[in-house]
Amino acid sequence: MGSEIRTRNGILYANTNNLGDDIQALAALQFADGEPFFVNRECLAQYKTEQSKIKLVMNGWFMHRSFMWPPSEVIDPLFVSFHITSTAQKSLLSKKSLQYLERYQPIGARDMHTRDLLTSAGIDSYFSGCLTLTLGYKYGKRSVERNNILVIDVPNRMKIALQKHSSDIQRYGDLVFTTQVMKECGSLLDKYKALQCEQRGSPRKFLSFDPYRTLVNFNCLLNTCCAQRVEERLAHAERRLLEIKQAKLVVTSRLHVALPAIALGTPLIFVIKDPHDPRFSGYEDLLLPYSVPSASQNVVDLISTHLASQGQQINISKLQSIQQRLISTVSNFFNRSPEKK
Known about the structure:
- The protein is an alpha/beta fold.
- The protein folds into two domains: 140 residues, Rossmann fold; 134 residues, Rossmann fold (3-Layer(aba) Sandwich).
- Helix content is 40%, strand content 17%.
- It starts with 5 loop residues before the first strand and ends in an 8-residue tail after the last helix.
């Protein structure tokens, strides 16, 4: 008799220098009981574990190495909060990919742009919203508030405006500037090792005769790869969530700072660099975005208004609907009651 095949709860991660990927992992980790099996988003085709199936929520940004798509058959996927980036669109909407996606529809899209791409290709899809909007499930609403205004990766014009009016802003709180980009990412050799995919216990060759794959790998290596261990990354992400939760106000252009702020009940000023960025479609009445010129010109008044409103201007009923559906869907997928334990 063969060995019994067991099921493991998987959590998606990515070896990038963007802490937003780890905040996405924390969102899924809220609902997965037991010891999680971490699955590299950029190696999905290479998982060959024959003794187990991996239940995996396919939330987030897909992907740098689209030649690693579709995923291995050992992965049992749940598609919610799924975003197709423009550089991977050709591969993720190929005939082979569409046949794969058809097996797991309806596909929960993170944004309206992805939903429309999939619907136009004949895939049953709906706007699920982002799983990071559920972060209050584990991390709760803020109770301890510090006297700081957390500023994360705003455009330079906005940063200059904040610094220029810092004396006027001081009466509302202390400006604290930080970034969502991880700096301590290891040596080039460490990052090279982090990019390797495991194939039946052996490292996948980094270089190949395929110029496209080689170019993508080198781009990841030089521009986006981070060799921090998953545990270090998640600890860093949890510290960031605590900073957001305890802030008096968050000012950012980062989606995965803004949506956690909404989930944790922290007042938010979201500054949008590109009003046509497809990642933000569907969130207009939650993010309430400001253009860089508008936000820069009226920065003191904006801070005063948003602190007074405590985030109550957003579409609360839409937010709650997204949260409830995501919590129920992901909890059920991981064979867990949606009631908190």
